[in-house]
Fold this protein.
Amino acid sequence: MTLPTAETRPTVETLLTVEGLAAGYGQARVLHGVDLEIGKGEAVVVLGANGAGKTTTMRALAGLLPYTGRVGFEGQALGGLRPDAIVSRGVSLVPQGRGTFSHLTVLENLHVGAAMRRDKDGIREDVERWCSVFPVLAERSRQAAGTLSGGEQQMLAVARALMSRPRLLLCDEPSLGLAPRVVAGLFEVLARVNREEGVALLIVEQNAELALSIAHRVYLLEVGRVVASGTADDFRGDETIRRAYLGY
């Protein structure tokens, strides 16, 4: 597999740097020295088979899992910080499986996403904004999140993560278990947030073709290691990767 490495990409001011990331669960090591970079305003996708370490990477970056190695965000180390402190630095996670607070209402979930903010007017404006982007959230604002459909919960999870006004949004399998129409709408919103507001994206996604449609660059994980990186076109042009991950 002869894909260009991340170092050959066009010069972009670095937002996130990950060096030698190693993590796991108990005695089971999942990541074995992952290196990757995300530039300001970039959309980066991580591909890999089940068990490759994609979700573990996201959980470590969000502060939900201890790790060794170095993670730097805008030149400052994130290692050892609690998840709420990482959110306050500008990194927000949309976890796999939605992860909404099921007993709280839609509106309360959105306010949880803004818990680190103190600008009440701005919070109110953002609630209105995301409820206009996802009208179903406005319709169900007083409804418990746990009573929403899977697609509605994923919309809420994305909106809640964006309520912190992150500079980097981590999305772990946003299409998992959702209807194609809902998935297309979610990715359209993510692409617009990236394109129009410059929010950088790191997306783990099984729907590789859809993920590549909004990606600037791609990393491929195998058994906890980065084995290839390049542009979306690089990956589409590699026959081995096409057959393994794109199905043609």
Notes: The chain has a mean pLDDT of 92.
